[in-house]
Amino acid sequence: MITLGIETSCDETAVALFDSTQGLLHEAVYSQIDLHADFGGVVPELASRDHCRKLLEILSTGTNNFDLTQIDRIAYTAGPGLLGALIVGEAFAQGLALALNKPLIPVNHLEAHVLAPFLDFQDHDFPFTCLLVSGGHSLIIDAQKFESYKIIGQSLDDAIGEAFDKVAKLMHLGYPGGPMIEQKALDGDPKKYVFPRPMLHSGTLDMSFSGLKTAVLYEVQKINDLPAEIPHIAASFQQAAFDVLEKKIVQSFLETGNETLVLAGGVAANKTLRQRMSSLQEALGVKVLYPPIKHCTDNAAMIAYLGSLKDIGKNDYNSSATAKWPLNMI
Ligand code: KG4
Ligand code: ZN
After folding, report:
1. What DSSP character marks residue 97?
2. In terms of domains, do 157 and 233 share one?
3. What is the CA(179)–ligand 1 centre distance, in A?
4. Closest listed ligand to the CA of 134
5. Quick check: pTM over 0.85?
6. Residues 300, 285 share a domain
7. Number of other residues whose CB lies within 10 A of the CB of residue 215
């Protein structure tokens, strides 16, 4: 059975073909990063227009030799995400489904991230813990079985990727900020500045990154020679943010008894974070899985895969797009 996946929830336009017996047949992602760079963040209306512009192009160029009538079903991201961007993907999926007379499956973007490791790790299985850290989310998810997920910890304000982006912006490092902070931090002393670790000792698995970002802002305002201090600020900020993540993940293992951690989201590309999470393998005797970066960040392979597992619903072509769609409502 072949599933076409379509992803347009934020600033990546992506399509993929997943075959239930052969695995992934094709995937393509177009990133809008350059479009939004000057604004220091994603501009929703520009994102929607660009999905309109790119969807047909990336579907047709990548699937030249593929007969689209061979598709058995079409899955698309219906939420959560930017509503306008979601509606573009949905309308595209509806048009294709109608033209090809195929069933349509709206899927949850967060559930797709949680299940993405099944694309790359053959022996991966439930239960496991997923740390989803991106520009829009900081979630610790207890995945007990298919369609049974519990958010056991989350940021109560800014997502961690958002904090990386804002800290980079206030040091004029460009967008997206995460990779720049990581690179600058390589030459910095992570102990030079002592930034707060919000909610480190809260006793819950919830997190907060807004106060940390503001603490960096106040420190930067006091510095005379900012260029010289950027590496130290970046390293100290990164250390504080990852101290919080590590503490919460350790606590989550004690609470759930799970033995596997999967990383997802753009921040999972950070090598320092990966090293810190890897060190838990020995310290706690758990397994830590890193899907390839292309399957950590937004992609359509995870959408097609998830769509291949779902029951076909009532399939009435009504709109399912929704900016907010919590995992516990699946
Ligand atoms: O998952 P993603 O590509 O898109 C969504 O947010 O949905 O994640 C993008 C986020 C941005 O905030 C970006 O700054 C952050 O991931 N990021 C990083 C790194 N690479 C990307 N943060 C820290 N270190 C990185 N190397
Ligand atoms: Zn995502």
Report:
1. H
2. yes
3. 8
4. 1
5. yes
6. no
7. 19
